[in-house]
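I'd like us to work through together how a protein chain folds, taking it slowly. To get us started, please write out a protein record for me. Label the sequence line and the structure token line clearly, so we can match residues to local backbone shapes. Once you have written the record down, we can walk along the chain together.
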Amino acid sequence: MSRSTVCLTCDFDAVSPWLHLFDGQESPTKLSRGLFGVDYGTPRLLELFDQHDIEATWFVPGHTIASFPDACEAVWSRGHDIQHHGWTHRPLSSYETEAEERSDIERGIESIETLTGRRPIGFRSPSWDFSPRTLSILRDLGFEWDSSQMGADFHPYRLRTGWEAPLDQPFDRGEPTDIVELPVSWQRDDFPPFAYRRGQGFVTERSVFDQWLTQFEWMHEHIDDGVFVLTIHPQVSGQSHRLTNLDQLLESLKEFSNVDFRTLSSVAAEFVDN
């Protein structure tokens, strides 16, 4: 019988996304949401992962490492994998030149090297946003895998270069590269349903966790060696009531037969070996 893999991923954005949202208007209240993720959400999630003996993949912007080194060190010292998530969570397509985009990514690499002593091999773009230049930059900088795109739901695959999408001609997929994609989904992310933003309210909390479990159940039943990537944020899922629901979800997932909890790096390495 094939096994199912669950990959818990945490986007430790802290205050960085609030520096770019809402037309650049600085707001102490918005920034305080990121501070909650640092001071309360992250310690709570670390404790929950310890209780379940789960190693998660944390995507950490360089801005978070520079601003909150103790919190980032706590993540690293508790045995979790830390990978790249930009410098200040700025969408990569907002850079006007390749040099500016490359500089952002290189600065994030330096931050992670300072914290962990090793170079990141995995990348998750801020807001899951690629520019037409991003893949080429990632290849040049030696990244081995990405977790930002949505060309599959439960299967790793290889990102492609040289694709073309003309309005008056058929789509051309291009050629596969050596970078493995571990796909994400807005349907398996806590930010869209739970993080209040202008013009966007809340959903029934329990229904989202039920939806995540339903998605996993379908994968477990229908997909051989499926990979279930769940994205959470300390400032969102670190809230008390969501911790309870997340705890219950993890307990439910562990009740299935032939289920492993793994980091994205280990899944990507196995995909390459096979």
